[in-house]
Write a structure and sequence with these properties.
two-stranded antiparallel ribbon, 7 helices, 7-stranded mixed sheet, binds cytidine-5'-monophosphate, 11 strands, alpha/beta
């Protein structure tokens, strides 16, 4: 079973309000993207990484991430697109069908674990497609112009994360159909869902956060400090 991982990291980080794209911001002394890649390398199931970055960051990524942190898996650096979906498609076009399973994982989720990767991969082998997700614990509201419009029943509501894993042919068909219909999704499972196929949900973790806002940089630093402190005990 051959597994390729597509890592979209070509965002420009408009919600972070910094000149530096969020994947290059350092937490615990390393860029977020380096943490993510080092975590992926801890997984024994991944054979190849396709890292998708903005064209202006290709040289920098090679030198200051892949070389500097000795990323131990074969990595192809691919140019990203204007949307996450375009970036994923650019990456997908670089893998041939010699891979049975394709994982997608946000470059800005630095706390993914080898176990979560293994679990989604095995679920995709069994069911065709699988995602990490966490059940909503907060009360949910639909808000319009700063005021509550109505409550949203939270039973069975999940926050979808990455990693996501797909059998190669399923993802290829989902991408082809989305392209054909001009559909743009915020993740790959949405493309598979449109085909009416089952998607297995694997329990993710609140620690598997997507770094999006400045607050989450502080949270990342706090998590890393705690992890180091626990290792030292
Ligand atoms: O901002 P968003 O939540 O969509 O970002 C999720 C991941 O997709 C990030 O790692 C980001 O760098 C990546 N992305 C991308 N190409 C884009 C937009 C986002 O690879 N055009």
């Amino acid at each position: 079973m051959k597994v390729a991982a597509l890592i979209p990291a070509a965002g420009v980080g408009t919600r972070m309000n910094t000149d530096e794209p969020k994947q290059f911001i350092e937490v615990g002394g390393k860029p977020i993207l380096a943490h993510t890649l080092l975590r992926l390398c801890q997984s024994s199931v991944i054979d190849k990484i396709i890292l998708i970055v903005h064209h202006s960051q290709i040289k920098r990524t090679q030198k200051s991430i892949l070389d500097k942190y000795h990323i131990s898996r074969p990595v192809n650096l691919v140019e990203g697109g204007n949307t996450r979906q375009e970036s994923i498609i650019n990456g997908f076009n670089h893998i041939q069908n010699k891979y049975d399973i394709v994982i997608t994982h946000d470059g800005v989720r630095p706390f993914v674990t080898p176990k979560l990767i293994n679990d989604v991969v095995h679920a995709a082998i069994m069911h065709g497609a699988a995602i990490a997700a966490i059940c909503s614990t907060d009360t949910l509201k639909c808000v319009k112009n700063g005021f509550v419009e109505k409550a949203v029943a939270r039973n069975n509501i999940y926050h979808v994360q990455t990693p996501q894993a797909f059998q190669f042919n399923i993802l290829r068909e989902a991408i082809d159909r989305a392209n054909c219909d001009g559909f743009n999704g915020t993740d790959e499972s949405t493309l598979v869902e449109r085909m009416g196929l089952p998607i297995k949900v694997i329990e993710g973790s609140v620690l598997n956060l997507k770094v999006t806002t400045p607050d989450q940089i502080n949270l990342c630093n706090a998590i890393l400090k705690t992890q180091v402190a626990l290792q030292d005990q």
